[in-house]
Amino acid sequence: MGVTKEQVESSLTSKLKPSHLEVIDTSGGCGASFAIEIVSEQFQGKRLLERHRIVNAALEEEMKQIHALSIKKVLTPEQWKQQQEAENSKPDA
Amino acid sequence: FRCFSSALTPELKNTVDKVVKSNKVVLFMKGTKDFPQCGFSNTVVQILNSLNVPFETINILENEMLRMGLKEYSNWPTFPQLYIEGEFFGGCDITVEAYKNGELQELLEKAMCT
């Protein structure tokens, strides 16, 4: 049994209480592979490496079966809001 | 505290310590810099090539003990793993992000000058 997108989502949701979470299944048929965007208060005051470690730790069980994990975004709610506003202000992007 | 046996023996830890400290930039990857065997490893090789810095690569596919041990050494579950001046820097996503925002160039320039 592989890991499903739903399992990844539920582990991240219960452990990191994200205000925004997007898990994208990027497996091209070769097995579990995911890309993640996550926004959580828990990243406040943490460097990028530490933030990635928090996500990796939350998925410790799943990682044993996941073939590839790409963490696209790990942001605090404040940073997320700024990014959203920046994106909305340039409609051509 | 881990109650199961560790892949990172004191000997292996010593060896990894030596490797990452005797080279300014070390990439533990799947395959070699001339023949990467995974897209993520290839991405980091391309970034380092484009920044024109000398770097060592070590193929973790050839040594299962090293592969398991390194995950504990860096507390990082996947490969590639980039080390700069003896310190674990990150995996592919972190390296790409740092490349985009200029932090990687800055850090590497500093490393080359020391």
TrEMBL record, chain A:
One of its GO terms (cellular component) is cytosol. Gene3D superfamilies: BolA-like. One of its GO terms (molecular function) is 2 iron, 2 sulfur cluster binding. GO terms for biological process: intracellular iron ion homeostasis; protein maturation; response to stress. Coiled coil: none annotated. Belongs to the BolA/IbaG family. This is Protein BOLA2-like. The lineage of its organism: Eukaryota, Viridiplantae, Streptophyta, Embryophyta, Tracheophyta.
